[in-house]
Design goal:
Largest sheet: 5 strands, parallel
Number of strands: 5
Helix content: 55-70%
Oligomer: single chain
CATH class of the largest domain: Alpha Beta
Length: 255
């Protein structure tokens, strides 16, 4: 084996050990380019490190989005803003800034189905992942089942510790399914852990006066509303169903 081949082999090995995949993939082309363009050692090293940093940044975004467990990818850029309810149109720019995450404030989007609540929530979650925040997406029924299972398995404290550390939790579909006293208490406790410190986005099809239908206990309902709404952004999502409009337009194309 020639000296150059041996050096190249060792570079590949060191890149694997040091976890430098971008350098491992492109160092030979980068060396050839540097020789051709007479690039200085400093610039050559800078270019290598920049590629590695860019790759890690992109991989970080992909991992955060993957670990957030979004049911699908919906982006804020894909929203038809004109079709959103008036209150959502007014507050969308403020939400897009993600300032509510920095200040640990909640966002509650309440309104009838099909008006864009989940799309906005997922879009904000993906944007948060892209900006370095740790995000969790869950439906409220799924969250309650996980809490119950954790309690049964005596791993509830570990679940609590993990739940508290998310910069943003999106709890979708509050009100679609009612739950028992145990579920109500667990949900109240865990959402309360985050109140005033970390952000939670809640989407619901029920107005606050109807939350007692799912929490059953009026005292707990009042306490939950008080905790969640304190210094929160309240978005009125009542309006025409965007999904219904899309379906109608799609049906027209099938005729």
């Amino acid at each position: 084996m020639t000296k150059d081949k041996e050096v190249n082999r060792l570079i590949v090995e060191y890149c694997k050990i040091l976890r430098l995949p971008a350098t491992r993939r492109s160092f030979q082309e980068d060396i050839a380019e540097a020789n051709l363009l007479d690039i200085s050692y400093e610039e050559f090293l800078f270019n290598l490190l920049q590629k590695e940093n860019d790759l890690r940044h992109q991989n970080g975004i992909k991992n955060r989005i993957r670990l957030a467990n979004f049911p699908c990818k919906k982006y804020l850029e894909d929203l038809v803003v004109e079709a959103l309810p008036e209150d959502a149109r007014k507050k969308l720019k403020l939400l897009k800034s993600l300032e509510f995450i920095k200040t640990g404030q909640n966002v509650i989007m309440a309104g009838n189905p099909g008006t864009g609540k989940s799309h906005i929530a997922i879009g904000l979650g993906i944007k948060a992942c892209m900006e370095g925040y740790k995000v969790l997406f869950t439906t409220v029924p799924l969250l309650i089942n996980q809490l119950k299972e954790s309690r049964s398995a005596k791993t509830l404290r570990a679940f609590e510790n993990k739940f508290e550390k998310y910069d943003l939790v999106i709890a979708d579909e509050l009100g679609y399914i009612s739950f028992d006293k145990e579920g109500s208490e667990l949900l109240f406790t865990h959402l309360s852990l985050r109140a005033g410190r970390k952000s939670t986005i809640i989407t619901t099809n029920l107005s606050f006066e109807r939350w007692e239908e799912i929490f059953i206990d009026p005292v707990m309902t009042a306490a939950m509303i008080d905790r969640l709404t304190h210094k929160s952004y309240m978005i009125n999502m009542n309006g025409n169903s965007y999904r219904l409009k899309e379906t109608q337009e799609w049906l027209k194309t099938q005729q």
